[in-house]
Amino acid sequence: IELALARSLDNLNAAARLRGPVFFDRGILDAYNHFLQNGLPVPSHFADAITQRRYHRQVILFPPWQEIFGNDAERRHTFESAVAEYESLISTCKQLGYEAVIVPILSVAKRADFILAKLA
After folding, report:
1. What pairs with residue 61 in β-bridges?
2. Smallest Cα–Cα separation from 114: which of 62, 65, 54?
3. Geometric angle at alpha carbon 60, from 56 and 65, rounded to 5°
4. DSSP 8-state code for residue 59
5. Which of 15, 47, 76, 77 could disulfide-link 81, Cβ–Cβ 3.0 to 4.6 Å?
6. pLDDT tens, 56-112?
7. SS3 80
8. Which 8-state DSSP code applies to residue 39?
């Protein structure tokens, strides 16, 4: 989790130097949510990062999709744990003042169109 926070902070710093929208696959919210979801105390440096390093007010979330879900060396959790994490992230986003934008289960092109329309 410490590595996830460090990488998320590095990614935010790098993105601050870019123009236009930048998308993050994972970020500080995910690391912070890990503590909440597992009933663990949130270390102070995580709490500081979550309040001081804000993302756009809209956080784009993709629901778990049973038909394409698979396990590999990087994704070892079950579909049920993916659903629990997703639901916890929605709650965490709201708690932190973000709007969780749920991307519907559609083709890749239609998902991209949905996200771009939300940015407009």
Report:
1. 102
2. 62
3. 165
4. E
5. 77
6. 999 999 999 888 888 888 777 888 998 999 999 999 999 999 999 999 999 999 999
7. helix
8. T
Name the token pair of 64: 């778990």
Half-sphere exposure of 47 (CA within 13 A, CB side): 6
Q: Which of 3, 68, 61, 64 lies closest to 31, judged by CA?
A: 3
pLDDT tens digit sequence for 79-89: 899 899 999 99
Cβ-contact 34, 41 below 8 angstroms: no
* Cβ neighbours for 17, distance < 8 A, ≥ 6 positions apart: none
Contact 102, 61 (CB under 8 A): yes
For residue 37, count CB atoms less than 10 angstroms from its CB and return exposed for 0-12, middle for 13-18, buried for 19 or more.
Answer: middle
Distance CA 9, CA 5 (A): 6
What are the strands, taking DSSP E only, across 31-110? Answer: 58-61, 99-102
